[in-house]
Amino acid sequence: MIYDIVYDKGTRLRVRAGKEAFTKEETYGLSETLLEYAFIDEVSISHRNGSILINYNDISKKGEILHILDKISQEDLYEGKATENISLAEISNDFFFRLSKHVLKRYLFKIILPIPFRKVRMLYHAANYLYHGLDSLTSFRADVALLDGTAIAASLITRNYKSVGSMMFLLSISDMLEDYTMQKTKSTLKSSLALNIDSVWKVDVDDEGNEIESQFPLSEIKKGDKIRIRTGAIIPVDGVIADGDAMINEASMTGESLAVHKSEGKAIHAGTVVEEGSIVIEVRSVNDETRLNKIIDMIEDSEELKASIQSKAEKLADSIVPYSLLTTALTYLLTGNTTKALAVLMVDFSCAIKLTTPISVISAMKEASDNRMMVKGGKHLEAYANADTIVFDKTGTLTNAHPVLEKVIPCGKYERDEVLRIAACIEEHFAHSVATAIVKKAEEEGLHHKEDHSEVEYIVAHGISTTYDGKKAIIGSRHFVEEDEGIKFTKKQQKIIEENIKEYSVIYLAIGKKLQGILCISDPVRDEAHDVISQLKELGISNVVMLTGDSENAANKIANDLGITQYKSQVLPEDKASIIQELKDEGHQVIMVGDGINDSPALSAADVSVAMRNSSDIAREVADISLLSDDLYDLVTLRKLSTGMLDKINANYRHIVMFNGSLIGLGLLGIIPPTTTSLLHNLSTMLFGLSSTKSVLGEEEPVVIDTQVVSNQDALIGEAAK
């Protein structure tokens, strides 16, 4: 590469390769290439002038950086894709460029263009507003377009050209501001919605015709490969079912919440979830070629996902228009003064209301995304703000998301290590926190295994069933093993269980109708759980409910320790949704917080649902809000954000009415002319819109945990670093 060094100070280096040295897409690829080096922290490249800005962390590496640039040739350039930071920077740069250009053109044309040319230019731009206003009139719609068109037409008739120019100038800036906010939020949401799947189970056939399953990075999967997807897993590719059948939740593609049956030969798409069954998929499309963007389209465009307060604002805005027109007509009839009538017409309550409400909603969604909370629609934030009841599934939500396998106790013919090895072999096929704990323990102890079992079947909220060494093998809850499968426990085994069940959650492994071992899992309550519940109560959530499969004594102790107002013990998964419905029937607005496959019906039944970071794929798919950090305080942050959003919208209503009402009064009294009312009205609309983009949360107060002061922001940064 041929370049000139234009800036070199400290660990900041800028070189310029010249105009047209590379295309916009090639700058993304070049950024990826440079960022592969650990000593390069940040790269900013402009395709317009060939400028490359490099921030690095080791001053001794400058020579190496220059050597890297020297070696890059035209053949080494490739087209890449913009990162989230680059996309956001480009959106901001484009907005400020368009805004500066718009302002410069207005004042430059005032200086250099003769008045007749300026009038022609103004009429050309006014024609667009007049056209849309006429369209509303002929369609019998009394909306903002009609009011704007009427105001501009009236100003043109009275030759109030200055007012027309100011009105159109400020309306166009308001449109730019709204478009800018929408683009930034959509870009952030798009990044948040990406499927975070690193590996899949690839199916191959050996020389003898037997199927072999091996874990492969998703990035290495190609068209024509076959992968297996089991119950509860999200599908990461587009393809066709080559073997098996399953119930597929396609809400991300179609918005339909009910699962559909898919069998061999049927097409499936990335982002959908296997609710029940096991399928082998022949891959047709991966990564960016999939229809995953349908998820984003649904969230951006679905009217059903709009906050009801946003829909009400749009209706309110349009409903005000007839009164504005009527007031203008009455003013003219009573005073005969065109100036006073125009002063009323130039003030439009509806414009500011219609602009600020969606901006407030989508800005709150963006702020949630910035705080690593993915919200699937404005209506879910509104429901979270209005809720008076929160329901927690205990395991994985109120308890740590990372349970630990503390003991493995053999109870039959298999040794301790063999019990752990078999359990890990079976459990590794399912993404659940308890399964992860068992697999992790086996890996730590170096207990590697072959796939010695047959196809595994996940039985929701009970356990896993398969065949091992020619015998039926099951692993799961006591209810599953003892009652459903009829496994009898000896007195010795019963004594071992009783000694451990008070301290641990116990998983049972049975092979050949006999209990072969128990696995003791510790799952302590989160340190922050008590404080989070206290803060949620302070923020207006009066009823805190816990659902757990634990015994009555264990549930009662946890409820008392955490300040939970109501709890249900020994709850079966199928009962959770009915409990949610009972709370709703009592008049409560309910939030459900869960993480497992068995929480999905309850998540669907709640007014608004939240999935924890380590949730199953189907729980994240069903949930209205997903937490992307492992921090219960996010529930408090979300409450503050959602209620703050509603407070901001209501405050906007009051301020808009007060300010614009004052303008109408001053216009009627003849204190200010129509030009000034138009200028102040449009300027206030723009400022209200700008104000609506401001952070609701602002600077978060530190949260005290175990006498250490840690800010929410620092906690998130620390989690991201892990």
Write up what this structure looks like.
With 722 residues, the chain is of the alpha+beta class. The chain is built from 25 helices and 26 strands. Helix 3 (84-112) packs antiparallel against helix 6, helix 10 packs parallel to helix 24 (674-692) and helix 11 runs antiparallel to helix 23. The longest helix is centred in the C-terminal third of the chain and has 36 residues, at 633-668.
Properties at a glance:
7-stranded antiparallel beta sheet, single chain, 722 residues, 26 strands, alpha+beta
Question: Which helices and strands appear, and what pairs or packs with what?
Answer:
Blueprint: E1 4-9, E2 12-16, H1 24-35, E3 40-46, E4 51-56, H2 62-71, H3 84-112, H4 115-138, H5 144-157, H6 161-192, E5 199-205, E6 211-217, E7 226-230, E8 238-249, H7 251-254, E9 260-262, E10 267-268, E11 273-285, H8 293-301, H9 308-335, H10 338-345, H11 349-370, E12 373-375, H12 378-386, E13 389-393, H13 394-398, E14 404-410, H14 416-427, H15 433-444, E15 457-459, E16 463-468, E17 471-476, H16 478-484, H17 491-501, E18 505-511, E19 514-522, H18 529-538, E20 543-547, H19 552-562, E21 566-568, H20 573-585, E22 590-594, H21 600-605, E23 608-611, H22 617-622, E24 625-627, H23 633-668, H24 674-692, E25 703-705, E26 708-710, H25 712-721
Parallel strand pairs: 13-20, 13-22, 20-21, 22-23, 23-24
Antiparallel strand pairs: 1-2, 2-4, 3-4, 5-6, 5-7, 7-11, 8-9, 8-10, 8-11, 12-24, 14-19, 15-16, 16-17, 17-18, 18-19, 25-26
Helix pairs in contact: 3-6, 4-5, 4-6, 5-6, 6-11, 6-24, 9-10, 9-11, 10-23, 10-24, 11-23, 11-24, 12-23, 14-15, 18-23, 23-24
